[in-house]
Design a protein that fits this description.
Elements lengths: L6 H10 L4 E5 L5 E4 L2 E4 L7 H12 L4 H10 L1 E8 L3 E10 L2 E9 L13 H4 L19 H15 L3 E6 L12 E6 L7 H6 L1
Parallel strand pairs: 7-8
Antiparallel strand pairs: 1-2, 1-6, 2-3, 4-5, 5-6
Amino acid sequence: MNNQPDIRQILQLALDKQAADIILIGNQPVSLRVNGEILPMDDRRLTLEDTHALIDQIFSFTDRRERDQFYTTGDCDFSLSLPGVGRFRVNAYRQRNSPAAVIRTVRFDLPDPAALNIPPQVMRLAEIQKGFVLITGTASSGKSTTLACLIDRINTERNCHIITLEDPVEFIHKHKRSIVSQREIRLDTENYATARRA
């Protein structure tokens, strides 16, 4: 990085290194989670001004609502697509009275459940047509990825209308045998309760 941190360079480097996450916290180096390990990008620690600048750069690519929500409530989750760079899921938050963010890299192609060792019993959940299925786990345990695999299985094998309520939209599904409507909370609908009623 040069003297002025640039979020596009950081995002591109993270993609090049196949990092799952980018962590921006003041008084720490920009850090990448690669193969489950958190590694500093370099030795330079972010100043409070650096962190503010990087967070503001992120918000410059979004709708003003995300920035307003962050500065009003202290946290905000949203997705971000940068042409020529990639797609990301951002959690911006305040800690110790300063801004911070964790940015998840999101692949444009959908994951392969076999390559991820998702058990066939889990993938058979895509066959259920009535009822309620919960996918739970800790952060970075694969909940969103598992759900994306299940939606893709339904999309590939069944002719139906799939509606997702996401905060934020992470994986993008193309229409296959099914039609997929992906609704992002706050962007496409006010909240989960309103979206469920609709």
